[in-house]
Design a protein that fits this description.
The protein has 428 residues and is an alpha+beta fold. It is built from 18 helices and seven strands. It is 50% helix and 11% strand.
Length: 428
């Protein structure tokens, strides 16, 4: 075989590289080397190889990369090239491209923010998720929670709230519960076309649902659906509205006798609507004579889950005495949301949302000048009383408010007759 004459030109895809042969003497021995020369980014580049075969392979590779525009990869130094080769070898078993691995590595470091290494975070995640959790859809889990609420004897209003909110939630998320994320919850709440107070109620129920799923083993510990999700205020914005003594007289005069205790307790003791709805006559102490009368709001019936004793003023005692029983529901209506606005309309009075409690608290503070005592009796902090309930009224108006008494028997009979006649006329 005829020996190859050097220099040799290698051409690939229109790009050429030249191989030159040279010798070097080391320790009395002569060694042959091959130099690959090519133009890289406008400059002459030389690469030494120990054999002609390696030189030809290098020249061919350089020509192909230059023709493809992949010239930056040829700029790698030997140490960089070795690191690249090691990285590719380590990623080979998982089949992840090196650029993808680098991007995910940087993302992980930024998320951790120096609080832990990636390996530590991974070990903690595996520890939390080592147990295989049962899968369940949002709809199926919601149904289980509603049944649990019935078994736990939650109030009718609470059961209704869970039923309405979870039905809507399950309809919007026809997926397994473990796929729900805070981003999805945030988007869901933002898209609800309802008042901020209603959004707060939905957010609270979803948070309760989240905690229930963790306790039942359907979600891993630490799962927070509401992490970073916007909070909504439960306070009704705008002017605090209260009833005047004359308006309250009209409401009590027109009220069905089944509704009178509810109105009187709300107006003169300041209990919440839900607390009155749960109240039993056995929890109302109407002392005979001059003794102290009070209403016991048990912890399981209070919004704050704290027991309290609410004083009964003299006029409230007078309103409740004709209706008193040893036991039984104080409010005979399961839901007063329809009866109360209708009563206001029939009385020619504007119905004010939460107006009974607003009025009671405002007049109590004006009469006693002791916001701290009123806050304790009503189950709120002084700050909430002042920001959400209190409207300034004169002490004289407060005296008139707590002087509202039930009509005499003669007047009651007259009013009953008038109402009966009006009812017959309306019926035609």
């Amino acid at each position: 075989m005829k020996a190859e004459k050097f220099p040799v030109t290698i051409t690939e895809r229109g790009v050429s590289a030249v191989i030159r042969k040279t010798t070097k003497t080391k320790a009395g021995k002569t060694h042959h080397y091959f130099i690959v020369e090519y133009i890289l980014l406008g400059k002459r580049k030389q690469v030494w190889r120990s054999s002609e075969g390696k030189a030809r392979a290098t020249a061919k590779d350089a020509c192909i990369k230059v023709s493809n525009g992949d010239q930056q990869s040829l700029e790698l130094r030997n140490s960089d090239r070795l690191a690249y080769v090691r990285a590719v070898e380590m990623l080979a078993p998982v089949r992840i491209p090196i650029d993808t691995a680098c991007r995910e590595y940087v993302d992980a470091l930024q998320i951790l923010g120096g609080k832990a290494s990636i390996a530590e975070a991974c070990r903690e995640w595996v520890k939390r998720n080592a147990v295989s959790l049962p899968k369940i859809t949002v709809a199926a889990a919601a149904e289980k929670l509603k049944l649990q609420a019935i078994a736990d004897k939650k109030s009718k209003l609470r059961q209704k709230q869970l039923r309405i909110v979870l039905a809507r939630f399950a309809e919007s998320f026809a997926v397994d519960v473990h796929t729900i994320t805070p981003d999805l919850i945030s988007g869901y709440l933002s898209a609800l076309t309802m008042a901020e107070r209603s959004k707060k109620n939905h957010r609270d129920v979803i948070g309760y649902f989240n905690r229930w799923l963790i306790l039942r083993g359907y979600l891993p510990k630490g799962t927070g659906w509401l992490d970073g999700v916007q909070k909504y205020t439960g306070r009704k914005l705008g002017e605090i509205q209260i009833y005047t003594p004359d308006e309250m007289k009209l409401l009590l005069r027109k009220a069905d006798k089944r509704l009178v205790p509810f109105l009187a307790i709300g107006a003169f003791a300041g209990l919440r609507h839900a607390e009155i709805s749960r109240l039993d006559w056995s929890e109302i102490e109407l002392a005979d004579g001059a003794g102290n009368s009070f209403i016991e709001v048990r912890a399981d019936k209070a919004k704050t889950q704290t027991r309290r004793l609410v004083p009964v003023p003299d006029n409230l005692k007078a309103w409740l005495t004709p209706h008193r029983k040893n036991a039984g529901k104080v409010c005979l209506y399961e839901n007063t949301t329809k009866q109360l606005p209708r009563l206001a309309s029939d009385s020619g009075v504007e119905w004010k949302h939460n107006g009974l409690r607003h009025s009671s608290i405002s007049y109590q503070v004006a009469k006693s000048s002791n916001a701290y005592k009123v806050a304790e009796d009503c189950g709120n902090s002084v700050q909430v009383i002042r920001s959400n309930y209190l409207r300034r009224v004169k002490p004289a108006a407060a005296d008139e408010w707590f002087s509202i008494m039930p009509p005499s028997k003669k007047t009651s009979r007259k009013l009953a007759l008038e109402n009966s006649i009006k009812t017959r006329i309306n019926k035609g």
